[in-house]
Amino acid sequence: MSKSRKSVAIIGGGPSALMAAAFLDTDKFDVTVYEKNKSLGRKFLVAGKGGFNLTHSEPIESMIGRYHPMLFLKNSLLNFSNKDLRNWFSQIGIETYIGSSNRVYPVDGIKPIEVLTAIVDFLKEKDVHLKFGYEWSNWKNDSIVFKNRIQIDPDFTIFALGGASWSVTGSNGNWIEIFKLNGYDVIPFQPANCAYEVNWSSDFINWNEGKPLKNISISCYGNSQLGEVVITQFGMEGNAIYALSNEIQKLLDTKGEATVLIDFKPTTELEVVLNKLNKSRHSKISDCLKRDLKLNNTQRGMLKTTLTREEFLNPKVLAKRIKGFPVTLIAAAPIDEAISTTGGIPLSAITDNFELKNRSNTFCIGEMLDWNAPTGGYLLQACFSLGVDLARKINQL
Ligand SMILES: Cc1cc2nc3c(=O)[nH]c(=O)nc-3n(C[C@H](O)[C@H](O)[C@H](O)COP(=O)(O)OP(=O)(O)OC[C@H]3O[C@@H](n4cnc5c(N)ncnc54)[C@H](O)[C@@H]3O)c2cc1C
After folding, report:
1. Are 131 and 9 in contact (CB under 8 A)?
2. Ligand 1 atom 34: the closest Cα is on which residue?
3. CA-based nearest residue to 252, from 198, 315, 178, 288
4. Rg of the chain over CA atoms, in angstroms?
């Protein structure tokens, strides 16, 4: 090991940290990842338990538009795009494929742990050091102090401490208190990509719990999202609602509730729906809803139980309701159950190089920063892109 190499400490062992380590030039830097758990990437493995969306395959220009705020991630995504990510995975032996939803998965037969192991093997090959049981607990002057009392003085520090959901994985967001103690303005964590609570009637839930609403779109606060949701005892969950977390949270914060509109026929214009209702060969309106408009039991029940008999029999009122069924959300699910969180370090606290403005050579990447994206591969892509972008920037220092 050359003594002239500068040291980089990466604190946290999730996807953003691992990608930064993978792209740092180890000829130039002595790189160590410090993770508080006994193993790396526990949340990454949890993500792998469901649909393991490593990224999304849509053109990078439209992908950029999925992020809030958009401009923050633009350069990182352009510098290391979804295509670059797939190529890199292929180089380390992880082939991917594009599913019918345009999300990108490891090919069948590759387990999440194998993806993680391939990354870790790549790091070991590069002579990146991996240390476990190192929980960052504070700074002492400029030194990094861990709970095990070990103190280090790296030339560069990269924090990649994650958000504050699924605390069982280690990503509990406790680090925010350390930043606060050191005078940083931080943003409280909020759940994102999570279920929302609805006051369904007990009759409704008895009939419809677990039922999906597929091929719908949901709109809120001027934004709309195609996808599906599932009715649950608690309320609603699914990709169509997750993608609106930002808008919904804004309304919950300001008004205490958020009304979203569900379009049961997003690809059919209101006039066409009305026409179908007016010109149906079925004498019963329920039959028209089922056969001509292909609405399922749950959708028909939702319409029937929320309209008066007169309204239900009035095609204009019914068509309007089919195209915009209002549902009032009263709360987000508990933060620990959310797929991701917003809040943490405000983007205003870091430079374009992700460096903390008042602490030189100290950088923050990943979900610990206050940005948001829908689930479906966008979260991991952003974490990977941020890691690569920062590594390349440090390589040039
Ligand atoms: C159920 C679920 C499913 C998901 N599915 C997907 C999906 O399919 N596609 C997608 O794109 N995204 C998905 N995600 C989101 C994705 O997993 C996260 O956005 C991503 O893991 C964040 O990466 P990160 O590196 O920023 O932080 P994390 O992965 O949270 O890693 C942070 C690491 O830092 C460590 N740490 C924390 N504090 C300290 C400390 N003080 N000292 C040392 N170490 C510390 C933690 O133990 C952790 O290992 C899913 C998330 C969940 C919960």
Report:
1. no
2. 12
3. 198
4. 24
Residue 333: both structure tokens together? 């699910």
- Distance between CA atoms of residues 362 and 151, nearest Å: 16
Domain that holds residue 377: 6-191+338-395
Along the 397 residues of the chain, how does pLDDT read in single tens digits?
445 899 999 999 999 999 999 999 999 999 999 999 999 999 999 998 878 999 999 999 999 999 999 889 999 999 999 999 999 999 999 999 999 989 999 998 899 999 999 999 999 999 999 999 999 999 999 999 999 999 999 999 999 999 999 999 999 999 999 999 999 999 999 999 999 999 999 999 999 999 999 999 999 988 999 999 999 999 999 999 999 999 999 999 999 999 999 999 999 999 999 999 999 888 899 999 999 999 999 999 999 999 999 999 999 999 999 999 999 999 999 999 999 999 999 999 999 999 999 999 999 999 999 999 999 999 999 999 999 999 999 999 9
Distance 47 CA to ligand 1 centre (A): 8
The residue whose C-alpha atom lies closest to atom 7 belonging to ligand 1 is 53
State whether 348 and 377 are in the same domain. yes
For residue 15 and ligand 1, the question of a CB distance below 6 A is answered with yes
Q: Is 228 near ligand 1, meaning CB less than 6 Å away?
A: no
| Ligand 1 and 170: CB distance under 6 A | yes
Measured from the CB, is residue 59 less than 6 Å from ligand 1? no
- Does the CB atom of residue 242 touch ligand 1 within 6 A? no
Q: What's the gap in Å between 367 CA and the centre of ligand 1?
A: 7
User: What residue type is assigned to position 160 of the chain?
Assistant: A
Asked if 134 and 109 count as a contact pair (C-beta separation under 8 A), the reply is no
Residue 1 within a domain: no
Q: 237 and 386 share a domain? A: no
Quick one: 71 and 56 in the same domain? Answer: yes
Alpha-carbon distance 291 to 346, whole Å?
51
178 touches ligand 1 (CB under 6 Å): no
